[in-house]
Amino acid sequence: MSAHDEGFKIALEEAKQGASEGGIPIGACLVDKAGNVLGRGHNMRIQKSSATLHGEISALENAGRLPASAYKGATMYTTLSPCDMCTGACILYKVARVVMGENNTFVGGEEHLKRNGIEVVNLQNAECAALMKKFIDEHPDKWYEDIGEPS
Ligand SMILES: [Zn+2]
């Protein structure tokens, strides 16, 4: 598992796409057991004035309705440690693994994922962290809104 992994590269591309749209730069990509990309997406809270479209939820949403078997053995790649909502979605659909870009910016439900038998990998990727640092420096209020904290 490395930053050269295709699923991670796509998640990072999605994060950059989000940044270019003025959104929160978090991307995600759901890849099935055979290596097929099921869905990809990025945080759309600002772009769509959405309460729920975090990167991981966008990727799940873009994958569309799938049978439970499609998630078996799947990996959710995300550029940032997944929040409680996205952690819950990964547990609900029983993905096998969550690969995150970094957790220096924010630590989400990693322990909860592990308790549910989901493998958690942290790539400690500097590019993901830099995207978040730039965004939070410029828009701290929008970041705190995203994680449900008063600014
Ligand atoms: Zn989330």
Explain briefly what this protein structure is.
By secondary structure, the chain is an alpha/beta fold. It has helices at 6-20, 45-48, 55-63, 84-92, 110-115, 126-138, 140-146; strands spanning 27-31, 37-42, 75-78, 97-100, 119-122. It is globular.
What's the helix-strand series?
HEEHHEHEHEHH
Tell me the strand percentage band: 15-25%
Instruction: State the major sheet.
Output: 5 strands, mixed
What's the CATH class, please? Answer: Alpha Beta
CATH homologous superfamily identity:
Cytidine Deaminase, domain 2
Which strand order do you get reading across the main beta sheet? 2-1-3-4-5
GO biological process, one term: cytosine metabolic process
Main location: cytoplasm
Enzyme class: hydrolase
Pfam family, one: dCMP_cyt_deam_1
Describe the structure.
Its cofactor is Zn(2+). By secondary structure, the protein is of the alpha/beta class. It has a single domain, classed as 3-Layer(aba) Sandwich (Cytidine Deaminase, domain 2), CATH 3.40.140. 42% of the residues lie in helices and 15% in strands. The protein has a five-stranded mixed sheet. Helix 5 links the parallel strand 4 and strand 5. Helix 6 crosses helix 7. The radius of gyration is 14 Å and the shape is globular. The mean pLDDT is 96. The structure holds zinc ion.
